[in-house]
Amino acid sequence: MSEAQMKVSDEIAISIENMNKWYGTFHVLRDINLDVQRGERIVICGPSGSGKSTLIRCINALEEHQKGSITVDGTLLSSDVKNIDKVRSEVGMCFQHFNLFPHLTILENCTLAPIWVRKTPKKEAEETAMHFLEKVKIPEQADKYPGQLSGGQQQRVAIARSLCMKPRIMLFDEPTSALDPEMIKEVLDTMIELAEDGMTMLCVTHEMGFARQVANRVIFMDAGQIVEQNEPEEFFNNPQSDRTKLFLSQILGH
Amino acid sequence: MSDTPNLGFVRHEPIPPSPPPVQQAGAVKWVRENLFSNWINSILTILSIYFVAKIILASTPWMWNGVWTTSSLRECREVLQGTSGACWSVLTERWNQMLFGFQYPVEAYWRPTLAFVLLLVCIAPVLFQKLPRKMLIFSAIYPFLAFWLIWGGTLLTPVIVGLSLIAGYMAFVKTERLIGFATGLLSGVVAVALVLYLGSFVTAALSGFIALEPVASRDMGGFMLNLILGTVCVSLSIPLGIVLALGRQSNMPIIKGICVVFIEFIRGVPLITLLFVANVVLSYFFPPGTNLDLILRVIIMITLFSAAYIAEVIRGGLAALPRGQYEAADSLGLDYPQAMRLIILPQALKISIPGIVNVAVGLFKDTTLVSVISMFDLVGMIRGPISSSTAWTGIYWELYLFAILLFFVVCYGISQYSQWLERQLRTDHH
Amino acid sequence: MSSTTHTEASKFSLSMLINDTRYRSTTFQVIALIGLIFAMGYLVSNLLSNLADAGLNISWRFFGETAGYDINQMPIEYNNQMSHGRASMVGAVNTLIVAFLACVSATVLGVIAGVLRLSNNWVVSKLMAIYVEAFRNVPVLIWILIIFLVMSNVLPQPREFRGDAAASAMWFDMIAFTNRGVYVPRMIMGDLSWLVVATFVLSIAGVFAFRRYARNLLFNTGRLIPTLLPSIGIFIIPTVLVYFILGSPIGLESPELKGFNFKGGLHLRLSLIALWFALAIYTGAFIAENVRAGIQAISHGQTEAAAALGMRPGRIMSLIILPQALRVIVPPLISQYLNITKNSSLAIAVGYMDITGTLGGITLNQTGRAIECILVLMLFYLVISLSISAIMNVYNNAMKLKER
């Protein structure tokens, strides 16, 4: 286990109990029970259509769940808008297609939410933004537009943008799937650094090397359910369920 | 073991670029390939050239032989003595009526002309992103300046209206930061109303202060009327169109229903029926005793008409935006008005500009329909006062050619801009 | 595993109306609805008091009253003793006639112009570009007025067709183009003429059946038989045969010059012709652009793939490009048809008695019932527009590319 995998506290950051979600009549998430401790790094993997993206989207209320409960940092995700806003300001999210705002500069992308949601004064927001842009190692791009950056740089800006809201939990939805192979490493390195700083992370990804290096837990989902979860070494070397074995053989084979 | 050829190869010196071989034949080859490549093409080419030649041969001598200085059609014919020639004198004599209408005071012509020139200056920074952004300040001032130039009256009226809008905006911004969007909107509206109310006393008292001779709306006409209707109605309909588009796209069935009914109703009826409404029916819906000018009623109906079409264009722009933008805005914690104002609308409007420009061109052409309800725009002037004047009855080609020229220049210019803009937008998104 | 104590069913409080996502949208909608009702109420109350002041009311009885005016172009029976309702119906039929004629001719013109615009022939393509740009950038009202004026000034008067040394002659002794309109022969349906018509309809079906047979033959046996000439044969020969066998049951009543005017035959007034031509040429320009955009929208990769498979340009166009292009072309084409129908209301500018001219014009002026007339007028156009839109939706859904 690496040094990053050591720092896990006892406090529960996210608590999901008996969560179920339907799209119409399609039962997309079935009886999800998950507790995430503060500082824990979880990698969620599984075949496409297994509901893994939907799961993490439920955590910051981008999707609604119909049954069960999700509690984030002590706040219950209910239909109260105030609760949803509170959760969203504590949880940061990175998307597969970056979703940077193309009409704003990099700096403006990062300062937008702090100014308008946390009502931070502009100067302070810009300082924070530059601090995080330095952290992701692209401070010199601050005045450029997203269209002028490479994919890897854009994803790193997206990470910095979420960090500017000083979240306590970070969600990653396949952050490297849309990148050219030579740019995957720079984004993974950023995420590893984030993990080493003690951030609680839930990551949907196919990058098993990253999972081995950083994750405390690997969760395998299929058909909307959690099929198996374990520490990385045990998970990769000793998969228990047949479905897990099939999946691992498909992605680790080549 | 066997004689396998050496497969390895390394190039040490790069090959420099060299010019291509000289083409064999020039123009002749091009003609043969493009115009006469097979028998169908040959026939088409010959027919087209014949057709074009016939038109040119018929019209050029007529235009060239034109008479410019007589004062009636009869005199033209006398001068021409049976040869065919255009009677351009109708234009030299009546060009000002065709441009400004027949009741606009002649000594005031400089005012709308200046307003038109300033319009081009004002609209330039909106249409061309490369121009300095400071010019937008002038664009914001322009509507008030143009109103004062064209309608006259004291300068204080547009100034007070402008001040009220500034007051409203500042009230909105301050309250929104502190409390929220809805309260901000309310305080903005209250501020505008307050300043307008107080200001009305000032303008009543000082009605001569830096005043231009007021010109009544019913005295406006000619091509100027088409331009005024076009610009005013399109500008006013854009905010309304945005609201309708957002409403049509929303999840709330009642709001969506209201917007859909409005948009489909307006798009299903011809503009002329709406102009009939403006002419005879609209005044019934205002409080008894109010007497709105015809031009104002027409502006209201044309604005509603244009808003429905622009709403559809903006709806297309909103749909073209990737869902990820909405999700990113949500995940950062922005609420609906913030997300719309800062993220969604700026991008959607930029995508919609070519469509909006198309609607604007269509609307500008449709302003000629006011001639059917007896307003004297350019077409109304041609069919009305000019054709029925004793000096010029029976003349039509020269007048309509002039009208065609005016409309073509404006519409073609605008549509060329729109195509240029579309090319720009396409290269922007890489 | 700690669990936070949360109260699922918390007490209902007023602020939940705005903050709770379950009630929020309902709250906004109720506010919007109340606002709308107030606004409508205000407008209606103004309307009623204004009407009362003017001594008017809303009544529909005038539709049954005598119209008292003539309509020049009468496709159905009408005289000035009939009711306003009847006059409006005549107008409605006139609208539909000119709209249909214009739609068909605009489509033909537009498709030809659009395809020619893409041709390699520089002269032809530039000429089409000039046509499209010239007509699209000038208001349709101006085109209608110009074509009407040109026709009324250039075409000969009826009496110039008189005599042996006539200045103008009729086409095939049957069709006369004058400045009062076009006179064409009228078909007189004799006995058994319906058999000829039925044969004609059947022969159209026969052409389709034959082509399907030819295609099945190709798929099953690999034999390619010629289809063009046989199709033309099937289209023409049976109808002509039946016509002559039955002893020419369909007669033609040709227009004849009697006195100062033509009598007999069908009189298509100049206003109808001018409106038809103007709408067709104007809208044809827009349709040409739609066709061009549709064909160009098909990615070049499609043509390349088809060519790599060995297909020739003609087959590529008919089997690969056109079916895909139609998907892109048909929706804007249908909105152009909508535009033609709405633009036909400009008939009032040249004196063609369409529904805007009868119901929205003379009837409105004579009875003074502005609100009722304009309402019914709008309803008419609205029904047509919504029907055409519904057809378009049906087409779109049928043609949607199946995606995962």
From TrEMBL, chain B:
Keywords: Cell membrane, Membrane, Transmembrane, Transmembrane helix, Transport. GO terms for biological process: amino acid transport. GO terms for molecular function: transmembrane transporter activity. PROSITE patterns: ABC_TM1. InterPro entries: AA_ABC_transptr_permease_3TM, ArtM/GltK/GlnP/TcyL/YhdX-like, MetI-like, MetI-like_sf. The keyword tRNA-binding does not apply. Residues 1-21 are annotated as: Disordered. It is a multi-pass membrane protein. Its main location: membrane. It is found in: Cell inner membrane; Cell membrane. Belongs to the binding-protein-dependent transport system permease family. HisMQ subfamily. This is Glutamate/glutamine/aspartate/asparagine transport system permease protein BztC. The gene is bztC.
